[in-house]
Amino acid sequence: MKPHSLINYNRNHGFSMVETAKQLTYFLADKRLYLAVVFCLLSVGCTQNKEFPEPGTTKAIPHRIAPVITKCGSVLDEASLINKGWNILFEDNFGKGGILLPPGAPNPTLDETKWTYWTSGAYNNELQYYQPANLTLGNSDVAGNLDLMITAKEEHIEDGAISPYAGPTEVGDFEYTSGRIESIQTFRGSDYNKVRIYARIKLPTAYGLWPAFWTLGVDGPNEQWPQNGEIDIMESKVDVLGNVPTEYQTNYFYGTSPGNNLVSGAEFEVGVADLTSCYHIFMVEWREEELKYYFDELLIDTKTYDPDPLSSGHYIPELWDKEQRIVLSLAYGGDFLGNNFVPGAIAAGTGTMYVDWVKVFVK
Ligand SMILES: [Ca+2]
What we know:
Keywords: Hydrolase. Belongs to the glycosyl hydrolase 16 family. This protein is mainly beta. It has a single domain, classed as Jelly Rolls (Sandwich), CATH 2.60.120.200. The protein has two helices and 19 strands. The chain has helices spanning 21-44, 78-83; strands at residues 63-65, 87-92, 115-117, 128-130, 135-139, 146-151, 153-161, 171-178, 180-187, 195-202, 209-217, 230-235, 247-253, 268-271, 280-287, 290-295, 298-304, 324-332, 352-362. The chain has an eight-stranded mixed β-sheet, with no helix packed on it. Strands 2, 5, 6, 10, 15, 16, 17 and 19 form an eight-stranded antiparallel β-sheet that branches. It is globular and about 50 Å long. Bound molecules: calcium ion. The site of calcium ion has 9 residues, from strand 6 and strand 19.
């Protein structure tokens, strides 16, 4: 998801200061230089990272078409997990009894003892403004069960904060809204032998959406992204042709200085079944020396430690000690959608990401 890697810039600011073509040329030249320097400092670290999908570039992602998966509506066998020695560390089944948010909302929604939410824009040149009103509870594929529904839609927001860390004057206008939550519960792999992070999700179908289930490291006094690490368990999109997602990516990030990602070639694209008409279980098993990614309990990707730091997709064991929180987000637009992305309409009923539950097991 690369939360801090790219800056939002000039979404709502024009070039009215430029009065002649010559001035415009100079201005744009300066701007490109400025952006290059800022991008270098904030995102690329000027040295190691060639992996960020910065605008204007394309990159090869390891790609594998998994066996055709026709399973639909997967259910987790928790009893079996517990019999095998796994203990549950965190869960939210998004059931009834949640706290009303915002007050007066028609549905009980987020349990604020478990989650925080964003009320702002984000990063990566994403177009949405996150707000709690886009987080609701609704019926799932199981009678009597409820899902957390994160809904992206077209909605005008005037002078919204451009990020959770924006100053009072750092505001902009937005034409899309959506939702993002982060778990209050955090965990380090190094406190356990193994950690499994699960969610049961049905993805939205609207073009331009960027649903993601991931972990983000907790900032420390001298530690920022990607020093604190990140594990992307699932991120997907509807392509420029509007095709229903049949692919998603796994990834992770780690670095030793702010903005300087050392992970190389760990983005892995998984070809699977339709992700939008069925609920699927996405999971990563985090071990000291590897990340093992599962789709409906089928192992589809392993990122393993390799002493060769340049080996593609290698795992960096320092991540093991980095405190993580869980994030569920539904962005609209942004760098992940690629250079050909053009913002458009989100048809009614197509902009919702359905999350039945999230669980963390440890042993
Ligand atoms: Ca549920």
